Amino acid sequence: MNTVLLHISTAQGPAECQIFARFVVRHLIREAKSQGIAAAVQTASESKYGMISATVKISGAAAETWSQHWLGTLQWICSSPVRKQHLRKNWYIGIFRLPDADLPEYGDGEIAFQTCRAGGKGGQHVNKTESAVRATHTPSGISVRVESERSQHANKKRALALLSEKLAEAHSTRAEAYARQKHVQLYQVERGNPVKVFEGLSFRERKMP
To answer: Per the database record, which ranges form the Prokaryotic-type class I peptide chain release factors domain (predicted)?
Structure first.
């Protein structure tokens, strides 16, 4: 099954871009599912107006071909719904494909565990068994240490959960940096050449030539 990660970015754009990004994420997912393609938000940075950025996972035999129609600059033509006196009517966001290597996942053998004695203040309260656990994602070097639980098994389980969170955070940071760079490049070069255009508060899609 083909899998594609699409990153929707406002590049820290204003409220109007964030409103547009929220609509695009929802519209993209609905359209994908109507085509029999699985689509789900993996990560999202939300704001009071909408979304600053989001990563959507697209899966299915047609994911590769279908996603190509969404890559590039998207334009929303509409008077600002939050700044009534604002003269600007054109708002832009970008959609980029993330490198597959950035997936925040790990396989068998990529997590190294080390056990050590949990800390304590001394005396009878010292944990004399090696119940603390350090889990390290060997490809990235990201690691966590857990000693809050009483058993090694519980600490190991907690360490895996925390490591997954750290990997997701690292992925999100890399993805946003990558998308911001691509967005700036595309915005400068193709601001007047969007792949999709939507109009008005109803986000009616304009037919492209």
So the answer is: 117-133
Burial class (CB in 10 A: 0-12, 13-18, 19+), 57: middle
3-state secondary structure of 164: helix
Do 153 and 159 contact (CB within 8 A), yes or no? no
Q: 170-191: per-residue pLDDT in tens?
A: 776 776 676 666 666 555 545 6
User: Where are the alpha helices (H) located in 45-200, listed in sequence order?
Assistant: 63-67, 152-190
Closest-CA residue to 98 (of 4, 194, 206): 4
C-alpha dihedral over 66, 19, 56, 38, to 10 degrees? -60
β-sheet with 90-97: strand ranges across: 38-46, 51-59, 3-9, 90-97, 72-77, 196-199, 204-205
Return the amino acid letter for 167: L
Parallel/antiparallel/unpaired status of strands 196-199 and 72-77: parallel
Please name the amino acid found at residue 187. Answer: Y
Q: Pairing between strand 3-9 and 51-59?
A: antiparallel
H-type alpha helices, 10-125: 15-34, 63-67
